[in-house]
Amino acid sequence: MSDTITAKDINEQDKALLSDLQDALANCMKCGNCMEVCPVYKEVGKEAAVARGKLSLMEGVLKGAIPLSAAFDTAMAKCVSCKACTAKCPCGVPADELILRGRQAAVKARGLHPIKKKVFALLKNRHLFDFALRMAGIFGPLTFKKIPGKMAALARFPMPGMDYKRVTAPFASTPLRSQYPEVIKVDRPTMRVGFFTGCTINYIYTDVGQSVINVLKENNIEVIMPSMQHCCGTPVYMSGDVDSAKILAKHNIETFDRYNFDYIVSACGSCTEAFRIEYPHLFHDDPKLKDMTEKLAKKTYEISEFLIDVVKIDKTKLGSVNATVTMHDPCHMARGIKVTKQPREVLKSIPGLHFVEMKAPDRCCGSGGSFSLGNYELSRKINDKKIADIASTNADTVVTSCGTCRMHLTDGLFQNNMNQDALHVIQLLDRSYQAGHQK
Amino acid sequence: MSQVKEKGVIKKMEKNHINALKEIVGEENVLTGIEDLYCYSYDATPGHSHMPDAVVSPANTVETSKILKLANDNHIPVYTRGSGTNLSAGCVPTKGGIVLLMTRLNKILEVDLENLVAVAEPGVIVAELNKEIASLGLIYPPDPGTVATATLGGTVAENAGGLRGLKYGVSKHYIMGLEVVLANGDIMNTGGKNVKDVSGYDMTKLFTGSEGTLCVITKIITKLVPAPEAKKAMMAIFKDLDNAGKAVSAIIAAKIIPATLEIMDNATIRTVEDYAKVGLPLDAEAVLLIEVDGNPTVVEKEAAKVMDALKANHADFVQIAKDDAERDKLWAARRAALPALAKLRPTTYVEDATVPRNKVPDFLREVSNIAKKNNVTIGTFGHAGDGNMHPTIVCDIRQPEEMKRVYQAMDEMFKAAIALGGTLSGEHGIGLGKLPWMEQQHGPIAMNAMKAIKRALDPNLILNPGKLVGEC
Asked: For labeling, which of A355, A430, B25, B323 is most exposed (least CB within 10 Å)?
């Protein structure tokens, strides 16, 4: 494949995609207000790093002024998809979505990055994916050294695609869904809830999954974890591989539709966003799947949101948790599904817990899902600001509602020689219920 | 090989020039990839773009000086740029050459509490300077709409104003001294920390607002002022535009200088209401937003007088904010003005034609007639207190027929402002956007004088050539 594919070439490949972009891009008035909030631009300082520059590059490709080159691809990749630019834009330009469209155009014209191609091929095959990640849990200790007292590990030797110094979380020796039966029964259930675990909770942060189950059980809710569920597809969607994202989405939609749950619950902002916003978007022109996705979208909740808005938890059952806690709002919670009040309400319900708000709690932690894999140094710099904000609260615990945020915060705390715990909101609530039983 | 170099003749950049630039600032601070160059081909002004040959980011004054010497010796045009948020195409590299990106010079060097002065590099974001001095009870008042993104250097070069212009003035009222690099690379200092200083030509004022055509600013000495202790916001709705105009005059005649005295015309009111549903009556011809600030006792007294003036001039509705939450509500309509208008159509021209304060109603009526006559959408809001209006034209630059009408409307609008004794630009600068009307405002003698200054300081015409005063 030649390195220069012009607008004309893509035009022939996907006219609909382009004509769509043309109007949306024209709405950017180039005021540059996105520069104020873009975490990547703040570190890089170059126009191609900020939304205004990225949208201009797309315009340039459409005008035929610049090629859809490797550098275009790199520019599109340098985005944590935190949606801060979209929230700031006075013209209402959905810049984060347009950048994804830019990535899609690049994928269509140039193909996926070879490493991503391999990973995504694996991801599309549920059995193989499950097998690979189980093996990672079993053989993980050979390659990763666990850090005592934390859900964290350091690589024992350099690994491809991974920074040597980087702290990640160990893969679980037994995935969450293998630790429990598919249906977790309670006496006289008030409702039946499907738990969409997502990959990080199933394979890595099983502690979060256990807390979700414990808390739901405390509220007399029957929890079902459909065994056939699979990755929500956000990572591939964010990389511009729409076709693979659609395969994963369709699989999950059909799986969850079969159970006829009262509600679907997830403990991750991005997974919730997938069910609630991305799936209906992906299948808006497919009459059969459209109805199904919209029905599922309406009953999907993030766990804190579910407990506060739907279950309306009984706060008298909660026992004391002595901790000073601050909270980081994941981008896809704050600007994706717009859930920020409920996790705070969960924390404030817990007796003994002292909540301290950090500066700019909804500023991106730098993880950006898989962004940090390809841009580790940059994601560290963005994260260092977050870690400094955490430090200035004097909290002993930082909580969040996203697995990859938790992982990146854990790494940041370690790299900055700090000893705070990084947890999911639901874990503190779980502790509080346990303390309540000992009252 | 010797080459005869004529004035104003631009040479194409050669590989050896790029290499020389890399030697000055380091390889990573010279961008030459076509994608990066494309990202510096525009600013926030619609309709102007051109690719540079290189984007160069110096780290300090010495590097800046070396770059300019190289550019001057080789007749390479230089376009100084901060965050690229200006509205007059001021940093579009229309003739190629070098975009000189000043954002790496981003340190606040000194806050001198005894002289109430700050010394900062040009790449400092204006809001960052204000954040730094807020805890000291001080402010740097110029606050253009882009205060959170614009660089200090950019706002000084454009002589930016803002919402507080009536009471606090614009950038030029706060710049006490500068360090600049001249076109040939010489480093020059102007002014200083002296409150009174009449030694020599006022080069500080000349360079402030020179839009990158006379020098490159590398250091800025600014005056700081005490932050007001109290603020009080009021809003008035008028069914009759003339009454709004009279109310503005009455407030000033009562010897009150509000920090903010904003107006929105009917087109803006209807757009804002449609977009933000803040409860404005659609038949209102004007909304005024007034804020007085200062000593708490004085603020209370002044607010009462403002309310009297509004009522005496037949405001159909008045409201005074009792607390911060109410203040935010009153401001919501004004804040929504630009976003609401901008969302109507893809392309947005925010102009800043300015007229003497007492001519504001006349100008608003003219603009509204011009819009009707040319079938163009224009919402006007702006700073009634200082006569600085923002007629905002929304359109679609991709529609040639519509753009003809837009340019016709612009032409009539600027001529109307000049006829009312006004000026082309209150705070955005001339750049390329308003260049076609410069001669009409200033006449040939003043234009020649300005061009003579340009030629004297930049004989090879490398600094932002063709802008502000046009081709020399």
From this structure: B323
**Topology of domain A176-309, CATH:** Rossmann fold (3.40.50)
Q: How far is A70 from chain B (nearest CA, A)?
A: 10
Task: Determine the distance in angstroms separating the CA of A3 from the nearest CA of chain B, rounded to an integer.
Answer: 14
**Which pLDDT tens digit goes with each residue over A264-289?**
999 999 999 999 999 999 999 998 89
* Co-location of B294 and B402 in the same domain: yes
Question: What is A7-110's CATH topology?
Answer: Fumarate Reductase Iron-sulfur Protein; Chain B, domain 2 (1.10.1060)
Higher pLDDT, A71 or B456: B456
Residue-range definition of the domain harbouring residue B263: 230-419
Contact B342 A29 (CB under 8 A): yes
Tell me if A48 and B46 make a contact (CB, 8 A cut-off): no
Q: Are residues B153 and B181 in the same domain?
A: yes
Which class for B89: exposed (0-12), middle (13-18), buried (19 or more C-beta within 10 A)?
Answer: buried
User: SS3 breakdown of chain A: % helix, strand, coil, rounded to 5?
Assistant: 55, 10, 35
For domain A318-437, the question of CATH label 3.40.50.1860 is answered with yes
What is the DSSP secondary structure assignment for residue B433, as one 8-state letter?
A: T
Is there a contact between A29 and B104 if contact means CB atoms under 8 Å apart? no
Cα separation, A167 vs A54, in Å, equals 31
In chain A, the residue whose alpha carbon lies closest to the alpha carbon of B43 is A30
CATH number at residue B73: 3.30.43.10
- Chain B CB contacts of A91 under 8 Å are 339, 342-343, 348
B342 and B278, same structural domain?
yes
ipTM: 0.93
d(CA A53, CA A37): 14
If we measure between CA atoms, which residue out of B471, B428, B426, B431 comes closest to residue B447? B471
Out of B39, B127, B348, the one facing A29 most closely (by C-beta) is B348
Which residues in B lie closer than 8 A to residue A53 (C-beta atoms)? 39
Q: Which tens digit of pLDDT belongs to each residue from B406-429?
A: 999 999 999 999 999 999 999 999
Residue contact B35–A32, C-beta within 8 A: no
